[in-house]
Amino acid sequence: EGIRSSLTCPLVAMGKPVGFLFFSSSRPNTYANIHQDLFLRIATQLSVILEKSRLYEELYQLNAELREARSALEHQATHDVLTGLWNRGTILEILDKELARSRRAGHPAAALMIDIDHFKLINDRHGHLTGDEVLREVSRRLAEVVRKGDALGRYGGEEFLVVLSMDNIAEAETAVERFRGSIASVPVS
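The structure corresponding to this sequence follows.
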């Protein structure tokens, strides 16, 4: 209402329409050819800015998805699928680093190898799915008693490796009992 003259310029980016720029005036015959050329140039620049902004937003989203995918791949590469614990390669790397740190600092290092007794009988009598459940439950219990600074991983089959971070050898003896007790206290149903 009250518009007496107008000028509409298309916003086109990479050959695709992305919008339009609309100028209006309440005075008649406001826009001449000079306005048309100037406003078309403005529309062209605005189209480029809009397209760059859209591409930047798309790139930002793709980078976020890529970071998420990378994190998932890193987790898959370092964790055991069944138990969620560190996998064999990762726990052995952690052990190597702890042994090197122990040599440099001159303090003791300890690692515990934990093996589920008679595990083959569980698989033979109750099936591998039950065996998997037992492994998950044992893993959960062991993970509950791992201290900050210690590392727990599935070494293979029914074997687990714990790398202890400690200041004296007595801590290793206490840790052995803590891990053994977490499994022996309640039968796995």
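The helical segments are 33-78, 88-105, 119-126, 128-145, 169-184.
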